[in-house]
Amino acid sequence: MPPFNLVSGSAKLVLAALLVQQAAAQQAAQSGASTSTVISAIVLNAIIFAILFAIFLIARPRFKRVYAPRTYLVTPEEQIEPLPQSLFGWLPVWLKTPTTTILEKNGLDAYMFVEYLEMMLWIFVPIWLLSWIVLMPVYGAGTTGVGDGFNRFILSKVGPSPQQQKRYVAPLLIQWIFTFWLMWNIRSRMSKFIKLRQDFLVSPQHASSVQARTVLITGIPNELLSEKKLRGIYSQLPGGVAKVWLNRNLKELPDLYDEREKWCNKLESAETSLIKTAYKLVKKGKAQDASGSLPQSDLEINAEVADQYVPQKKRPTHKLGKIPCMGEKVDTIHWCREEIARLNKEIEKKRSEIAVDYKNYPAQSSAFILFNTQIAAHMAAKAQAHHEPYRMTNRYVEAHPDDVVWANMNMNPYERKIRTVIGWAITIALIIFWAVPVAFVGIISNVKGLADNVPFLGWLNSIPNVVVGIIQGILPTVLLAVLNMLLPIFLRLLSRLSGTPTRSAIELDLQGRFAAFQIVQNFLFLTLISGNAGQIAQYVQQVASQPGQFPGLLAEAIPKGSLFFLSFIALQGLSGAAGLFAQVAPLAVYYVKKFLLGSTPRKVWHIDHDTGGPAWGTLFPAMTLITVIGTGYVVIAPIVNGFVVFTFFLFFLGYKYLFLYVYDTKPASETSGLFFGKAIRHIFAGLYVEMVMLTAIFFLAQSEDAAGQKSQSAIPEGAFMVVLIVIVVGFHYFLNDSFRELETALPLTLAGGASSGAQLEGNFSRTSGETAYNEKKTVNGQGSASHDAAAAPGLQGGLHSNGVQAAGASGEKHQSDSGLSPEQDSAFFHPSLTGEQKPIWLPNDKFGIGRAGVASARKAGLDATYEHTSVTEKGTVQTDAYEPPGESLV
């Protein structure tokens, strides 16, 4: 072994962490425990699957809030008919429900994810059957290669004799069939996706929405920061501009607004805590129930009625110090009322200043522009707006106020470029050096062999094989799952810190980062580590000194790592898919929240009514990893194909159920399927890796005659693989050339057809954001004060660069012609400019403490209410409100 100091920079760091592996065990391919490891993993995960699915069958009809919230918690147009309550009677109804229902009820992003899973089934099912019929006999029958158990059916099982080496023709043929079948499916599904996306964009309901016609533009230079100038630029587009929202430097106003929200929440919690304390004291006999003599009129209720039930020392208090548990101790309720009243006045004062002071509160480098036509918005997003570099280059069509990351709105374009470079540098470093903890996972997958070669681990040999099988098969995949849960949190933070201004764009960026991590770390690196722990130091040194040897080393390693991935896929397909149905964690979290956090009417409402959605930035890469594993082993270890098919089938069923009955993808986060396009491109990364490895295997293959003479035996196969790689590169180029622009474009031909009322193939009945808002107001009779245009006088117009308010006040012709409601008219102002104080929402208890708190809050000048609330005899807070006061459901 060469001295450590001869190894290159990055390899040194990896090698230093992995030197302990030099004494590791025999390769997994030669270990008899490897097959038992996989079988143990399958059996254990099958048991887990049965338990979790039984939980689902029993709990589904009893806990509609967890297992079927989309049957009643979403808008009427998006609701789906409930399934039968019987134990198995729901199955035929659910299975017969077409996946297009997801498109109609839950949006295109949700539908395209399920479409991706269906596409994987279309790809892998025929290849699974073909490879098992052709390749498994070729590899396993009458060969003399090394391996037993599942390892009898891998490419390296082919023996070295010239006659046996001819069997390499079979994997070559299957690889060509698989590759062309894969390309055909990609091409057909991309065509379908583009058509669906275009139909979605130009559907009358979506095309007429404000979201479809709004563009966010960042990096606007100072000389163009006025409504008049931006209108002048963009009025050249069809239909012109309906409204411009300029973002301004609001200085401390957002902090004041957030602080007010904080103290409003604390006041609600303190008041509710006081009520619950009163109930407890009355129940224990330490206070007398005087509710029978309570006045009927709120005006007659004593403001300090709580003093009859709760002594002063038991009232909620907190300390004012910035350090927890430090500072002056104050009564929380009295202090919060005074502080909220002060903040209300301070916020109104700041808003009045901002309305007229354009010098101290100048416009910054971003704006939302609402066009009169949808096609104009798309043309604005595609057109180069400025003649200088990095000016107005980042444009986001389909902007939605609930999707905006306001902290990133006004970042200098050069600062954003630098942040992006730094963010990707950190991401690449993480991808490379995450190898250290993942290497440990790989070692555990061959712990039996490690025990044979490391003396102080010899005690592991006394453990029963079943236990060892569980340790090797289950523990590594669980540890890997935990590691993969931590990483996306940090990667999402990097994307946010890079200046991405919308949450959906952050998820799209995260998808790229996390998919790269999955392919490099969880496939390539684990391929090298798993079953080859004893050789990892040698691998690192050889690659560091001769990088060109990497394909060959990988080609030798990949068959030996197949069993680890069999265990991994078994965990994903059985336990993972059953977890989708069982929803054990959401069920537990719901009741834990209900018990521990259901302290105020507002919190109770959100626990009972909030519907969750998927994190696309991590969900798609998780499926990408399984796709890459299946692609990588499709001919090298064909037994993996059956596991991949089974896993995708269970995931398809699980996510079909979730997107029909559980998950709710909000209109604000809808990208119209953009995640699907990125996922398709990630398939090519796995395909290229697989073809390069197979090519290396063919070129490295040697036959050995009776005399012991060795010679290259699969050069023609390797040459055909090179030809196939060239074909795939060409297909990849033309696929991007054909569809890349269409993924985000709105063609003029379709825009014209939509405006003339042309019939569209897609059926899109999903309620848009603003339509849903108006419907909810009509049904419930409750309005939301969260976006009150009158709250920001003078802010309706834009700004000239010299600080004079531009034409465009709310009463001017071009704004009234836009037909915007007051909520829409102020939608793209920063919430701190328009958001009213959230009404203090207190429980209506029998003692009158909540009503007294509302009266006291109103006396202090605060908005407050106790409507649609009650408290049970046990002191549990309840509410039947349609929406929380002061909050919009959209």
From TrEMBL:
Give all residue intervals belonging to the CSC1/OSCA1-like cytosolic domain.
Answer: 212-408
Q: Pfam families given for it?
A: PHM7_cyt, PHM7_ext, RSN1_7TM, RSN1_TM
> Where would you say this protein principally sits, based on its record?
membrane
Identify the PANTHER family for this entry: CSC1_OSCA1-LIKE 7TM REGION DOMAIN-CONTAINING PROTEIN, PROBABLE MEMBRANE PROTEIN DUF221-RELATED
Please indicate which superkingdom the organism of origin belongs to. Answer: Eukaryota
Which is an annotated GO molecular function term of this record?
A: calcium-activated cation channel activity
CC annotations in GO: plasma membrane
Q: Where are the transmembrane segments?
A: 35-59, 121-142, 168-186, 421-443, 463-487, 563-592, 615-636, 643-663, 683-701, 713-735
Instruction: Tell me which UniProt keywords the record has, alphabetically.
Output: Membrane, Signal, Transmembrane, Transmembrane helix, Transport
Recorded protein name is: DUF221-domain-containing protein
Ranges for the CSC1/OSCA1-like 7TM region domain? 419-698
Membrane topology, as annotated, equals:
Multi-pass membrane protein
